């Protein structure tokens, strides 16, 4: 139990403090940097900081869900999704630096809350655990679509990253569906959207 606790603590510290690494090539590799105005750069930075914060939350969420998942296939699906989210962390983190910014100062707060939420989802049972994964990824996919509309049109580097992230998230949702995810009640979906809205607004600025 102590070894497991140390392992999970190490995961959290790595997510929050250590640079993330991507096994895949960064989606914006080979894409030229646009000549953005100061306002466009600030806006793109805010959006990418939101996306990075979302990936921090995803790491914590899937970590908590995997801890309490009962079925080995569900646990493995969560771990696989978490690994791809690490790549998203690396992509967004580098893009934030390129735009002259830093990750959200609120990441530790959102990580802690997401970890607790993931543990709670897993305790409810695997079909609800997977249902939470499915709905999370659906909402994230819609959120990333909105960012594609909001990003400066000439910012092809950020757009390439967000496009690949959206495709990965939708694949995670489909994977959860195929494994038997339950459809979450409407009030739960609404609460998830409200929580995401609060996180988005705060991490854009901070």
TrEMBL record:
Belongs to the COQ7 family. GO terms for molecular function: monooxygenase activity. InterPro entries: COQ7_proteobact, Ferritin-like, Ferritin-like_SF, Ubq_synth_Coq7. The gene is coq7. It is found in: Cell membrane. PANTHER family: 5-DEMETHOXYUBIQUINONE HYDROXYLASE, MITOCHONDRIAL, COENZYME Q10 BIOSYNTHESIS PROTEIN 7. Its EC number is 1.14.99.60. Its main location: membrane. It catalyses: a 5-methoxy-2-methyl-3-(all-trans-polyprenyl)benzene-1,4-diol + AH2 + O2 = a 3-demethylubiquinol + A + H2O. Keywords: Cell membrane, Iron, Membrane, Metal-binding, Monooxygenase, Oxidoreductase, Ubiquinone biosynthesis. Fe cation 1 binds at residues 55, 85, 88, 169. Pfam families: COQ7. This is 3-demethoxyubiquinol 3-hydroxylase. Fe cation 2 binds at residues 85, 137, 169, 172. Its cofactor is Fe cation. It comes from Chromobacterium piscinae. It is an enzyme of class 1 (oxidoreductase). Catalyzes the hydroxylation of 2-nonaprenyl-3-methyl-6-methoxy-1,4-benzoquinol during ubiquinone biosynthesis. It comes from the Bacteria. The keyword Iron applies. Binds 2 iron ions per subunit. Coiled coil: none annotated. Pathway: Cofactor biosynthesis; ubiquinone biosynthesis. It is a peripheral membrane protein.
